[in-house]
Amino acid sequence: MRRFSLLLRNEFKSFLTAPVVHLIAILQPTLMYILMSVIMVVPTFEMRIVNPSSSLGARFIAAVDEVGSPIGPDYIEPILVDDPSPGFRQVVEIIETDGNSTALQTYGYIDSNLVKNLRNRLTAALLVLWNIDLGDQGITIHEHPWLPNDIPYTVYFGMAMIPLAAYLAAAMIGGYLMAQEFENGTILIYRLCPTSYPLILAAKLTRLMIIAFTGAVILYLFLGLITGIWSSSFIAVFVILIPLILIASCIGLAAGLITHSSLPSFLIALASAFAFWLIGSGFGLAAGFSTIFEKISRLIPNTPIIEMMFPYFYYGRQVAAHPLAANLQLIGYTLFSLIMLVFVYQKRVLSKDR
Amino acid sequence: MAQQNAIVVKSVTRKFGGLVAVDDLSFTVEQGEIFGLLGPNGAGKTTVINLVLGLLKAHQGEIRVLGYDINSQTRQVYHQVGYVPQETNLYQDLSAIDNLWHHAALYCHDLNNVKGHMEELLNFTNLWQRRNDPVKTFSGGMKRRLALARALLHDPEVIFFDEPTLGVDVQGRFALWEHIQQQRKEGKTFVISTNNMVEADTLCNRLVIIDRGQAIALDTPKNLKADMQYDVVSIHTSPPIVEPDTLLSPYQVQNITQFEPDCLRFEMENADTRTAELINTITKEHQLDSILIARPSLDDVFLFHTGRALRE
Questions:
Q1: What is the SS3 string spanning chain A?
Q2: Nearest CA in chain A to B16
Q3: Complex ipTM value
Q4: Residue A43 pLDDT > 60, yes or no?
Q5: Do B105 and A195 lie within an 8 Å CB cutoff?
Q6: Which residue of A153, A329, B19, B90 lies most exposed, with the fewest beta carbons within 10 A?
Q7: Do residue B84 and residue B21 come from a single domain?
Q8: Considering the entire predicted model, what is its pTM?
């Protein structure tokens, strides 16, 4: 145990050899999330309500709130206007003629789950309004909402970036530092040392896991601070990440061992991290895309990870198509990655037949 | 009781593709001696060290270190050997003490006493005052001394030192030689690889001259030089001697080399007793500006055995 803690200490000391790479790897996803969620991804879904001063307009806003779409800058922000211009993306016009109330919804050229969801919410809200008009003869409305309350897209976006943050930190730092051992000739120290290599690799993996968790926790905190939404279990979210971090660490270390060069290792880690993020449900659940894309997406470890994390952010809602299969898939990927790392380490460090 | 061999290299051959880097090489290193691998760049010295350390596998032959077979008992060997490679492989951004801690975690069997040993070694190599400074701020000599301290940290029996003073200034060189000698007195065995004649002559108890992967001579520096039957004569004349073979034909000379037009160097048997005769022959048609007769150096030994200059 003493030796392992010393090895771990050495691993952490290596921060001094590449502080900039560490900072990039740990903070880049968080910075990207802040930038994209606050500046580029507009979380507010603008709903322009014409004739807002009418009592019906006010009741409509209350009805939307009642059916579970939060009114406010996080999700739907009613902007009260008197003149519907054709350029608006969403227009709801409340018209009263001859004692009849009509709500006119107009959609621009956008289509997304968010719009579809909003449309359903609006329909429910209008039913509520209609029921008020019907009085005692009102229709009983049984709502079966998928979620009790709509959650801003930035939550999904941030949640899907947590695996990216963990992956990037582990793979990039693992690859870069391992390649540096070759570039600086310090790999010789490992080639000649009598300490068993599984212990050395265990220290490296442990260190990368801690670094990856650090990157993920920072993003998690910013996600919570920006959206106000926190997962129902902190520990569960990070336990789910363990297989992905191990996979990323193995890929990063193997890249360093194979290329012997910092830049290619850095780029391999970067490219694989973003490819996994984009293909692996980074912008929406795999099931929401085409069949082919979903099949490809399910091959990426990020997809089952996100599906497992989803309930902790979305009121316990399960979305994994086959939870057991997803678990087995992750276990399989992790074991394969570890075996690959051992094989590559033996070949590139311990082999005498070079 | 016969002294046990620290290293036994028996008929070892190693090829890289079609190139035979080490060719049927055999030698033994006794415990407690400083053994030199001498040869020009590319002679195969580093390959020999890599083979003995088990970093490369020999295609033929057998290597034993402290009685252990290097291929099947590698772990046992690695507990008892230290290595300072040619390119000092220290972590430049870490401090001297952090470099030693890094090494300790990987090499030291007993981690309880390692702290005291670090202090001892850093004092021994005069680096204690700089222990917390990043290695990148060290001079070349300091880095080599730190690398030596690191190689000694796990108290190995045998230390391999590749080009100990390469790129080290004169003061640093003497300090390193002193450290190596001190460690030898404490019973350590050193195998050093060098193409520095002075270093080989000063440090080594015995040495093997390697050229093109083959051992061409093996003995103490003193015996190697004594085995030379010729003295080395260097003369400056004006005008230059045009046909030295003809002029020097009455004498038993060999390896005539004309470094510059007016400068000749050759090997001659009993030159010290035939100096006057030689001068007479030369001064008949030439003005003799200088003459130097010397006992052979290791350079001359190498030249004698290979027929070409050492530093090509």
A1: CHHHHHHHHHHHHHHHHCHHHHHHHHHHHHHHHHHHHHHHCCCCEEEEEECCCCHHHHHHHHHHHHCCCCECCCCEEEEEECCCCCCCCEEEEEEEECCEEEEEEEECCCCCHHHHHHHHHHHHHHHHHHHHHHHHHCCCCCCCCCCCCCCCHHHHHHHHHHHHHHHHHHHHHHHHHHHHHHHCCCHHHHHHCCCCHHHHHHHHHHHHHHHHHHHHHHHHHHHHHHHCCCCCCHHHHHHHHHHHHHHHHHHHHHHHHHHCCHHHHHHHHHHHHHHHHHHCCCCCCHHHCCHHHHHHHHCCCHHHHHHHHHHHHCCCCCCCCCHHHHHHHHHHHHHHHHHHHHHHHHHHHHCCCC
A2: A354
A3: 0.78
A4: no
A5: yes
A6: B19
A7: yes
A8: 0.79
